[in-house]
Write a structure and sequence with these properties.
- The structure is a single chain.
- By secondary structure, this protein is mainly alpha-helical.
- It has 5 helices and 3 strands, in the order αβααβαβα.
- The protein has a single domain, classed as 3-Layer(aba) Sandwich (Rossmann fold).
- β2, α4 (about 75-85) and β3 form a beta-alpha-beta unit.
- The longest helix has about 45 residues, at about 100-144.
- The protein binds guanosine-5'-triphosphate.
- Guanosine-5'-triphosphate (GTP) binds near residues 8, 64, 66, 93 and 94.
Length: about 140
């Protein structure tokens, strides 16, 4: 597994490259900075655009949970947004290590694996359907 921390908004090209390459995404905002929370939806829309037609696999993380006194985004708001984005939500502190950082990454990996398995099954099913159709065609030709 390789984890990449995307560059800030100043390097759009590199960020886009990372997004194309990535299989699972952690969108992190700062609970003490409402502006960073407001950037989550536009970022998710940008990701959707780049990964189209695939569904983006992501989790939402509110960081800097150690700075409770400076909080601008409530836990409920984070949870609500995660529900809207249909993804898991965690609050943590990269500084103190508090919160569910490990669980967040485990959940993301599990979700990437789950989706890969589902996609693999769909692909296998569609190739089986093609083989069945070809055999049916041959049988119809032979009998006519
Ligand atoms: N108190 C506290 N500070 C944090 C935490 N996480 C990061 N910081 C601080 O926030 C500042 C920015 O952290 P970065 O890791 O550079 O943030 P970034 O979003 O990757 O920034 P870019 O490189 O511009 O994308 C640094 O001073 C960090 O020490 C945290 O959980 N709690």
């Amino acid at each position: 597994m390789e984890i990449l921390d995307t560059a800030g908004p100043e390097d759009l090209l590199q960020r886009e490259g990372h997004m194309r390459w990535g299989e699972g995404f952690v969108i992190v905002y700062d609970i003490t900075d409402r502006g960073s929370f407001d950037e989550v939806v536009p970022l998710k829309n940008f990701l959707d655009e780049i990964k189209k037609p695939k569904n983006v696999t992501l989790i939402l993380v509110g960081n800097k949970a150690d700075l409770e006194h400076a909080r601008q985004v409530s836990t409920e708001e984070g949870e609500k947004l995660a529900t809207e984005l249909a993804c898991a939500f965690y609050e943590c502190s990269a500084c103190t290590g508090d919160g569910s950082i490990h669980e967040a990454f485990h959940e993301l990996c599990r979700e990437v694996r789950r989706r890969k398995m589902v996609q693999g099954k769909t692909r296998r099913r569609s190739s089986t359907t093609h083989v069945k159709q070809a055999i049916n065609k041959m049988l119809t030709k032979m009998s006519s």
